């Protein structure tokens, strides 16, 4: 259980760091980050299943936040594409 939460926390930290560390030059940069978030979602799904979804609700919350980040990145990509 702790391993799954550690993975989710690391993924969220990585995503946040990537989002703020570099200037976004175009929507392709955002697409790379979007892909990493999708991979983190799949990893979280596997971790939750391996732990029989018993993470006191923390795994579900982490997955929910990853889905929220994925949606926001999608919207940012679309916005960036239309801005040019």
Q: Would you kindly provide a written description of the structure presented here, covering whatever features stand out?
A:
The chain is built from three helices and no strands. With 84 residues, the chain is an all-alpha fold.
Write the layout of secondary structure elements.
Layout: H1 2-21, H2 27-50, H3 58-83
Helix pairs in contact: 1-2, 1-3, 2-3
Strand content: under 5%
Strand count: 0
Low-pLDDT runs of 5+ residues are: none
**N-to-C span:** 44 Å
If you compute it from the alpha carbons, what radius of gyration comes out, rounded to the nearest whole angstrom? Answer: 14 Å
Q: Enumerate how many helices there are, as a single number.
A: 3
Order of helices and strands: HHH
Shape: elongated
Helix content: over 70%
Question: Could you list some keywords that capture this structure?
Answer:
single chain; about 80 residues; mainly alpha
Short structural summary:
The protein has 84 residues and is an all-alpha fold.
